[in-house]
Amino acid sequence: MRQILVAGNWKLNGSKESIQSLVSGINEGMSGVGDKAVAVCPPFVYIPRVADLLSGSEIGLGSQDVASEETGAFTGEVSADMLKEVGCQYAIVGHSERRSIYGERDQDTAAKFAAARAKGLTPILCVGELLEERESGDTENVVARQLDAVIELEGVAALADAVIAYEPVWAIGTGKTASPDQAQAVHAFIRAKVAELDADVASKVQILYGGSVNGGNAAELFAMEDIDGGLIGGASLTPEAFLAICTA
Ligand code: 13P
Question: Which of 76, 98, 133, 163 is the most exposed place for a label (fewest CB within 10 A)?
Fold first, then answer.
């Protein structure tokens, strides 16, 4: 039985004050979450502060990105070692906003995945198609290509130490959630693709859904056979909205 994971991706949001009330609000509601795992991914600068606020809590902590390099002349980058040192367990890699806005290629994401994993961070590998790719029937090709970049670099066994997040780009921040059947179909495709290479890894790897998840649709999505939780953007920014998903 795979554990459900609900992870909040705060993106470029928050302030010292707002994260304090967000984290304490989430902490207070954790008793209703049951056996789900919960994590938050703040902007880099707030990670140490959130780590302090989370001390003694079972809520996990992750970054929204990570450098593919370990150290040296890479202005603006933050390494996996640094993230480990300030208390992260997870690192999101290959979010569609990194891919589409900052030009991150599949190989860049794979290198970040490798860097995170090498230092004991659990990569949350995001994959997903654009609206035009879905409409042209290319969803599976796109998702397969994004996964293959990681599998080619790291081997399929590496996915045993990772989480996959299927985030159809057309569903992110748009209010247009993939239907449970649409999401399940892609999750099943991902799991079957991994199973062709390693059935054991496929049966264990958590595959999260992301894209306009909220308290009203989370239960139905998480009930699908191959959906093991969610990566949450907008609805992770208030305790009420996030807890409504965590307790769904
Ligand atoms: P929304 O939940 O705001 O659609 O964002 C999803 C997402 O991109 C999480 O990484």
Answer: 76
**CATH number of the domain that residue 185 is part of:** 3.20.20.70
Q: How far is the CA of 248 from the centre of ligand 1 (A)?
A: 17
Q: For residue 57, how far is its CA from the centre of ligand 1 (angstroms)?
A: 24
Residues spanned by the domain of 242:
5-247
CA atoms in the 13 A half-sphere facing the CB of 26 = 28
CA atoms within 13 A on the CB side of 166: 28
Mind listing the pLDDT tens digit for each residue in 116-175?
Answer: 999 999 999 999 999 999 999 999 999 999 999 999 999 999 999 999 999 999 999 998
Kindly give the pairing relationship between strand 122-127 and strand 163-166: parallel
Q: How many domains does the chain have?
A: 1
Kindly give the number of the ligand 1 atom that is closest to the alpha carbon of 231. Answer: 9
Q: Is 167 known to be catalytic?
A: yes
Three-state DSSP class for 41?
A: strand
Residue-wise DSSP of 169-223:
GGGTTSS-PPPHHHHHHHHHHHHHHHHHH-HHHHHH-EEEEESS--TTTHHHHHT
This prediction's pTM: 0.98
Q: Angle of helix 139-154 relative to helix 180-197, nearest 10 degrees?
A: 40
